[in-house]
Amino acid sequence: MRVVVDGCGCFPTGRHYAGIAHLLRAVVRGLAEEFAGDGSWSEIPIAVIDVETTGRDASVDRVVEVGVVVGRHGEVIARYNWLINPGVPIPEEARQVHHISDDDVKDSPRFHEIAHEIAAALAGCIPAAYNAAFDRAFLANEFARSGPQASAGGPESKQAPALRRDVDWIDPLVWAREIHKEEKSKALGEVAQRLGIALENAHRANDDAEAALRVFYSLANDTRVPRTYGAIMQEQRRLALLQSDERRFWKN
C-alpha cells in the first residue's frame, strides 16, 4: 500500500490511525531518484546553470554561452564554461546585455558539438538556476535540437537530472523572494550585493552561475530553509505557487 500524504504522516484531518500509520509515507514529487529525499541536500553536488542567449524566447532564440558551477557542503568544487556559436547573428540588444559578439563566437563550437560535455558536467548533481524556468527552457530546447544521444553524457550513462523532465530544479530566486520579501529588488545582482557576494561580470554565464550558487548557500542559512532534499523541494514548490498567485493578483 502506498499513500501520498502532505508530509505530516496523517490524514487531512490530522488524525493518525494506528492500524495503518506505519504504512504511510510522504511522497515528494520532482526529486532525482538517485538521491534520498530524507538525506541532507548539502551532501549532494548542486550544479547551478546559467545561459546567455540571443534573446528571451527559448523556442526560437539560441544559447551563446553556458556556465555550470558545482557546489557541495557550501563550497565551489567545479566550474565549466562554453562559448557557443548559435548559427544566427547575435542581436545588438542581446549583445548589450552580455557583451558577447558574433566575432567572439565565430570560431566556437555549435551546441550539438559540446552537448555531451555539458551533459557530463551535470551528471550526478541536483540542477539549479536563478529564475530556473528561463535557463531550463533554453537548455531543454538546445538538447532537443541536438538529438537524443547528446543528453546521455556517455554511451552507458544515465541522463543527468537537469535533463529529465520530472526533476525539479532548485531556484534561489524563490528563496530570495521569501527571505528578502521586504526588499524591492530580487535581481541576482541586488541580492548578491545585500549578502556581500561579489558579482563582477554580471550577465556572463560562469559569473552569474557562481553568484547564484553562493546566494543560495547564504540564503540557506535561514531557518526557513529545510535541511533535507525532499523537504527543500517540497517547500520550494509551495512557495513558488504562493508567489505565482501573488504576482497574478498584482497584475489584476
Walk me through the structure:
- Residues 45-225 form the Exonuclease domain.
- Pfam families: RNase_T.
- It contains 8 helices and 4 strands; from the N terminus they run E-E-E-H-H-H-E-H-H-H-H-H.
- Residues 1-14 have low confidence and may be disordered.
- With 252 residues, the chain is α+β, with helices and mostly antiparallel strands.
- 36% of the residues are buried.
- It has helices at 92-98, 102-105, 111-122, 132-146, 172-179, 188-194, 205-219, 229-251, and strands at 46-53, 63-72, 75-83, 126-128.
- It folds into 2 domains: 1-30, no CATH class; 32-251, Nucleotidyltransferase, domain 5.
- The termini are far apart.
- Helices cover 36% and strands 12% of the residues.
- The longest helix is centred in the C-terminal third of the chain and has 23 residues, at 229-251.
- A 4-stranded mixed β-sheet has the order 3-2-1-4, with helices on both faces.
Name the assembly state: single chain
Structural class: alpha+beta
By CATH, the topology of the largest domain is Nucleotidyltransferase, domain 5
Strand content: 5-15%
Give the averaged pLDDT, no decimals: 90
| Low-pLDDT stretches | 1-14
Number of helices: 8
Characteristic terms for this protein:
252 residues, 3'-5' exonuclease, 8 helices, Ribonucl_H, four-stranded mixed β-sheet, RNaseH_sf, 4 strands, alpha+beta, disordered N terminus
